Amino acid sequence: xxxxxxxxxxxxxxxxDLVSYVVRILENDWLGHVYFxxxxxxxxxxxxxxxxxxxxxSNRLGHPTPLELPIGGTGDYRIPALAIxxxxxxxxxxxxxxxxxxxxxxxGLPGLPATYAEIGTEAETLEVVVADRMAKIExxxxxxxxxxxxxxxxGARVTNAGESAVIVRCAMSAALDLPDSDWxxxxxxxxxxxxxxxxxxxxRPGRQSISSSRGASGHQHNPFVVLARPATTEEHGExxxxxxxxxxxxxxxxxxxxxGTTRVRAGINPDGFSWLLDPGADFVTPEAVLAFSSGxxxxxxxxxHCLFRDRLARGTWRDRARPxxxxxxxxxxxxxxxxxxxxxxxxxxEMGIELFVLDDGWFGRRNDDTTSLGDWEVNLAKLPxxxxxxxxxxxxxxxxxxxxIEPEMVSRHSQMFxxxxxxxxxxxxxxxxxxxxxxxxxxxxxxxxxxxxxVISGILGSAPISYVKWDMNRNITEPFSPTLPAWRQGEFMHxxxxxxxxxxxxxxxxxxxxxxxxxxxxxxxxxxxxxAFAPQGWTSDDTDAIExxxxxxxxxxxxxxxxxxxxxxxxxxxxxxRITPLATRAAVAFFGVFGYELDPTVMSAExxxxxxxxxSFYKQWRELFQRGRFLRLRSxxxxxxxxxxxMTVARDGRSxxxxxxxxxxxxxxGPQRLRLRGLDAxxxxxxxxWPSAEPAGAPLRSTVLGGDELxxxxxxxxxNRKSAEAGDFRARLYVLEAEERxxxxxxxx
Length: 749
Ligand code: DGJ
Fold this sequence. Notes:
Blueprint: E1 3-6, E2 11-15, E3 19-25, E4 31-38, E5 82-85, E6 96-104, E7 123-132, E8 137-146, E9 151-160, E10 166-178, E11 184-191, E12 194-202, E13 206-211, E14 221-228, E15 239-244, E16 250-256, E17 262-268, E18 275-277, E19 282-284, E20 288-293, H1 296-311, E21 325-327, H2 329-332, H3 338-350, E22 355-358, H4 386-397, E23 400-405, E24 409-411, H5 415-419, E25 438-440, H6 446-462, E26 467-470, H7 492-510, E27 515-518, H8 528-531, E28 536-538, H9 545-555, E29 564-569, H10 582-589, E30 593-597, H11 605-627, E31 629-634, E32 643-649, E33 655-662, E34 673-674, E35 684-690, E36 702-706, H12 707-712, E37 715-716, H13 723-726, E38 730-738
Parallel strand pairs: 21-22, 21-30, 22-23, 23-26, 26-27, 27-28, 28-29, 29-30
Antiparallel strand pairs: 1-2, 2-3, 3-4, 5-10, 6-7, 7-8, 8-9, 9-19, 9-20, 10-17, 10-18, 11-12, 11-14, 13-16, 14-15, 15-20, 16-17, 24-25, 31-32, 32-33, 33-38, 34-37, 35-36, 35-38
The structure holds (2R,3S,4R,5S)-2-(hydroxymethyl)piperidine-3,4,5-triol.
Residues 329, 359-360, 404, 471, 473, 519, 521-522, 538, 541 line the site of (2R,3S,4R,5S)-2-(hydroxymethyl)piperidine-3,4,5-triol.
C-alpha cells in the first residue's frame, strides 16, 4: 500500500511511483514535515532531513522547523495553519501526536465537495490526530494519496473536546514547507471578461498571496497556484500545484522567511472568518489538492485535468460526450418570444447543433436586468405556452432543451423581495449595496435553500429540461444573517457557500440526468468546488476568440477542456468589438465544450454552411477535444504575444489536433515550425489542415509525417507562408491521424 508507517522512525511515508510525502513525529511529539516531491525509496528513514524537535525558534538559533500544522505564538513566526481562541482569550496551542490510522479509499467530506476514490485500492488515506491535552483541542489531519497520480489531497477536522466553546479564527486546509525559495509563483488572475491571465513572478522575502473576500472564488484570482522553478517550462522542470476545492472566500499564500525556506498555506480566507466551536463540535476544512511534477507545467496540468475530470466531477455526465449547445443570450438578450427562439433553435438544428439553451429573461417581468430575480414563474407574454411548450417544441425539432437560472439572487423589484425582504443579505439597519440591480439571497438559511430547492425542482420537473446553466452575477456585500447570533456572524461567508453546495447537492441528486453548467458572470466561480456538482462551467463572458486564447490558456493550467464551455459568437464581438473570421472563432472554441451564442437566422447561407461544417468537425473529434491530453505549445503570455499554439492528443497517441493562432499578420514572415508533443515517435501521422482551402465537402489536404519528426524537428506551419493574403486573426488546425502500423516482416527462422 502507498502509506508506510515506521514506528521506530516515527515516520509516515505516503508514496507511489510518482511522488513521496513524508511526515515525522518530532521528539517533542509535534508533527514535522519532512518532504514532498519526486518519489523516494521505501523502507528508509528520512528523519535526518529535518531537525529532531520543535520548541520554538529560540532553541535552534531561529532555524525554521518544517511543520505539518504550524501555529502562532509558539516561536514559529511564519504564517500559521491554525489559530484558535481559547476560553481564556489565549491562542497558544501545544498539539502533539495522539494517534493515527490508515485505511483504503478516501472518505467524503460532510457538506463539502471533495475528490473521491471509486475503488478502494486506487487511494489510501492517513489520518493523524494531534491533541492539546490542556485545551482539549484535537485536530485530525487527513492525507490521501492516489496509487497512480502525483497527488496528495489534504484537509483537517478540528474538534473541541473540552467543556467550553472556542473560536476557530484560522483553519487552513494545508500548509507545506519547502526547503528553499528558488521558485516562481504562478497565479491565474484578472477580472470580469479577462479571467485567468497567467502571472509568473519570483518569490521574494515575506508574504505573497492571492485571495477572495467576495463570497465567491471570484474573477480576480482562481484558487490555484503553481510554484515553478525559474527554468521550468511546459515540458521540463519541477513544479508544485496547489488547488483548493472550494468556491468561497479563500487564501493561498507563500511566505519566504529569512533562512530562505518557503511556507505555503491554502484554505478559507481567515480575514473576516471565525467559527464558534461548541463543546463536542467539529469544524471541517475544505480540501486542498497538492500535486508535484518534474516534467514541467504541461505534466502538472494533466495531473489536475485527469483528477478533476475523473475523480472530482461525478454523475451521469462525468464521462458522457457533452452536447453542442446554442445559447440565445448574445443572440437576443432579453428581447425574445417563442417564435424567435424557435427560429433560432430550428436554424441551429439544421446545422447539427444538439441543445438549445434559454438564457436569462424568461421569467417574471424580466425585460432587462432591473427586475424579477426570485420570481421564477414563466413570463407568459414571451412564452405563452410556458417553458414546457417551448421545451417540447425544441424536442420535436430533434434537440434537447436547457434553461438558465440564477437561484442565489433577488431583484429589488420582485415579488420575492416584497414578501421576504429579510432573505436578502444585508445588515438590517444599513442600506444594502446593489450590484447589477440585485441582492444576494442568504444561502446560510436552510429555509431559503429549501424554498429554492422547491422552486427549481418545480421548474426542472415541469418540462423536458436536460441542461441547467446556474449563474451568479454579483458578489456579497454587507455580509450578515439575522438568523445567526452576533458571535456567529464570522461564520456567514462559509455558511453561505455551504448553503450553495447543499442546494447543488440536492438538485443534482434529484435530477441526475440533467447536465449542470456553473457560471458566475463567466468565470467568477470557476473552481474545483463547483466542478464537483457541475462538470462544466462558462469560462468567461468574453467570447472574443483572441481574448479567449489567453483566458482558455490560463484556465487550462488547472482545468480540463471537458470543463471549459466555449462558444462561437457574432462579430463585431459584443465585448471588445473585434471582427474575427468565423473559422478562427470556431478553432478557438473547439478546445473546450463547444457551442454557439449567436443568431443563425441573421447569418448568410454561406455562413450557415460553414457552421454546419464546424459542427460536424467537432462531432467527429469531440472525444479528442473533450477528453484528450491537452498540451500547451506556444504561450499568448510570452514572446511578442502574437501567437498561440496548443494541441490535444488521444491517450493512445493515435490521433491529435493542433491549434495554431496568429493575432496580427506580419509582413515577410520567415518559415516557421512548431514542435509538437505527446505523439508516438514511432508512428506515421496523416496530417491534414482545417479549415480546408478546398471547396466544402472536399477532402482535407493531407501529408504523412513521422511522430519523431513532428516532435523533434517540428511541423512546418502553413499560415506563415501566405501571410499577406491571410490577414489578421487567423487560425489553422492540424489533424493528425496515425496510419495503420504495417505488420513487421516475418523473420525466417
Ligand atoms: C452572465 C452570464 O455569464 C451570461 O452568459 C448570461 O447568462 C448573463 N449573465 C445573463 O444575465
